[in-house]
Amino acid sequence: MEIRKPDFYDSFRCLGGRCPDSCCQMWDVAVDEEKAKVYRGLPGELGDRLRYFLRDEDGETYLTLEGTRCPMWRADGLCRIQAELGEEALCKTCRDFPRLRHDYGSFLELGLELSCPEAARIILSRDRWQWVTQGEPEEMPDYDPRDMELLLTTRETAMALTQGPDPLTRLDFCQEQGLMSSLPLGLNQVNIKRSLTTSSTAIFVPFTTQELFQGGEALYYGLNALSGNMIMADRKQLKNPNGLILGTPGSGKSFSAKREITNVFLVASKKDTIIICDPEAEYAPLVNRLGVQAIFCNGATSGRLYRKYAQPLTGLEAVVLPSTSPANAAFTMPRLLDAWGTALEGYVNKP
Fold first, then answer.
1. 38-47 long-range contacts, Cβ below 8 Å, gap at least 24?
2. Residue 211 contacts residue 199 (beta carbons within 8 Å)
3. pLDDT, tens only, 12-58
4. I need a labelling partner for 313 at 20 to 30 A (CA). Which of 140, 192, 209, 269 fits?
């Protein structure tokens, strides 16, 4: 398999007790199956303490917090497991962090998390960097090459933003030139890609307006502020079906979102799927009224919070799926796709 990594990847070394922050706080650490078995078999006070804080939940094992910190954290900032048993005794999550592994099936991409102060220092202090490639690529990649090219280009552009004016151009003190370039005046003073077309501009002209009125099973979205005509549309038939609700507190943003959900539900076909991300259980009454079939939680922590705060309101048990967080090192991308695909198969319609 081909392995790609930035040339600074191998230079990372954990600062331990000298770190200005700590990754040993505010999150339950996922423990891989092999190390969980080792920890539970340890003798003495250390083993007793590990067994007390280890929790099995929804097929995963976690080392829960003592207050806000990991119970293995010492006052000198070091990990008790590493100090007493050595680095090889660390679970995969602690051994790898802040190292990232993105497994795309036919190749593996490695990187560092910016959430670690030392990793951030290494990345942001470099003027130049380049990819280092090891191994041979698979002959038949299991991904769309165009999507992968876009991903890698985006990644390289993001990294270039940290590395000075080359290959990107800084636009310090160019506010006026940027404004002129974004207007349809024919002058592109900062060499940007412009997307403000004539039809997009027309809606801002006082004596004309862009109407949106579709026939058939269209939904009512309100009145055009300029013409006063009704806005009727089926979002699935629009060139850009995405929607964004903006407003001041109390202006009706939640009401508008609930109305949109209800409208889609009433005219939905068998091919439509409504997915709601609702961490505060605000939509629980709507869930009950519309007869929602299933609720899915991304990871065990999400499942615990749902059972504590939202399940008493919805009355529905959640299906807890493996976390898609990079910190969940036990699940590679193929395993995540398989687990999520199996759980959602009965609810989400395939194209």
1. 38/89, 39/91, 46/80, 46/81, 46/84
2. no
3. 999 988 999 888 988 889 999 999 999 999 999 999 999 999 999 88
4. 269
Residue with tokens 């891989």: 32
Q: What is the DSSP string of 228-263?
A: --EEEE-GGGSSS--------TTSSHHHHHHHHHHH
Burial letters for 126-152: b for 16+ Cβ neighbours within 10 Å, e otherwise?
eeebeeeeeeeeeeeeeeeeeeeeeee
**Measured between alpha carbons, how far is 335 from 339 in angstroms, rounded to an integer?**
6
Helix, strand, coil percentages (3-state) for the chain, rounded to 5, are: 35, 15, 50
Q: CA–CA separation, 53 vs 75, rounded Å? A: 18
What is the mean pLDDT of the segment spanning 217-226?
A: 79
Tokens for 207? 């004596």
Output the CA–CA distances (angstroms, integers) from residue 312 to 276, 287, 288, 298, 318, in the order listed.
Answer: 18, 13, 12, 19, 12
pLDDT per position as a tens digit, 78-123: 899 999 999 999 999 999 999 998 887 778 889 999 899 999 999 8
